[in-house]
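Reviewer comment 2.1 asked that we show a complete input and output for one of the modelled complexes. We chose the coproporphyrinogen III case, as it is the one discussed in the main text.
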Amino acid sequence: MNDLFLREARGEATERRPVWMMRQAGRYLAEYRAVRAKVDFLTLCRTPELVAEVSLQPVRLVGVDAAIFFADILLPLDAMGAGLRFVKGDGPSFEHPVRRREEIGNLRTPDVGASLGYVFEAVAAVRREIADLPEPVPLIGFGGTPWTLAAYLVEGGGSQGFPRLLEWSYRDPEGLSRLLDLITEVSIEYLEGQIEAGAQAIQLFDTWAGLLDLERWRRFSMPGVVRIFEALAGRPGKGGRGVPLIFFAKGAGHLLEALRDLPCQVLSVDWRQPLSEVRKIVGPGKVLQGNLDPAALLGPIPEIERLTARLLEEGAGGSHIVNLGHGIFKTTPPDHARAFVAAVQRLSARPA
Ligand code: CP3
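Response of the prediction step:
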């Protein structure tokens, strides 16, 4: 078993640094597009055998050291009755957005096992398929933070600046906090279900943390994140040990002093700051994950290798899981992704 990812996440000694990529199962792979040509996105998420197939594609084809199961952060909002749809080219949209406190009652508190059981079945299916690999790798589970999930739910889909969300946050902060609390409760059950089904680490995505200044991030995003992590901390996974918890925020350099205190092992940072600078602010207590600019994978392979070597130097001062600073672009040539992964595996060997 290749357990480099789990050992690095726990801050243990490893022979070399592990590497995986956010959004590693996806449209940059022709093999993924071939599956998507047959089924729409939500059907794919609801079909465990297909989830297992696409989740393992980056392990088999790119050689990453961890798998992340295929799903989406927005699925729990669908279970809450918001009516999630993916329209080709337009991204996600919700039939029933929630924009004021009176509308929170339109959501239901779902029976998570019944309405999201398909995700847990998919997690178990991915674990079974991983066990058959010549060299099994750990499986990462994930969810969005309540703040980032609320961003899509309030807006009714993706948005440039999320003006409706921000308007609510200034007009009726307590009402918005009630919505965030409700999403937090559902998220805890959803993530516990993933761990019970076999997820070996959990990553929370706070993609829209950067909409908030430090004080407002502490007010709106941090409470849900802390509650989720505290609920999951020490929950033994199938292997009996607590699962490592990872927090990713985008555009959050100004939040690092707060992120340092989160009850999680790993901080995943975007590409905007060198890891050595991040390390100075967060100190030795966190494992860092990241942070090659995903756009760098669009450039020529020798340049990717040079930037990867530089990234490894930047991260050398502590435990480091190599990743991109955000999701891989769908126009990335698969050869370039492979060159990145291979460079990490070749260049990061630690003397015994
Ligand atoms: O490989 C993996 O990382 C696992 C699967 C995964 C997906 N989405 C699949 C997906 C993960 C971890 C996510 C997380 C996610 N989803 C985030 C947080 C990470 C980030 O990018 O900041 C967010 C904000 C979403 C919401 C979402 N889902 C959007 C905005 C979109 C449309 C944009 C786009 O890229 O098309 C999706 C759809 C989606 N989720 C796709 C994939 C592979 C593309 C769907 C397709 O195949 O057509």
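DSSP finds 16 helices and nine strands in the chain. We note this here for comparison with the apo prediction described in Section 3.2.
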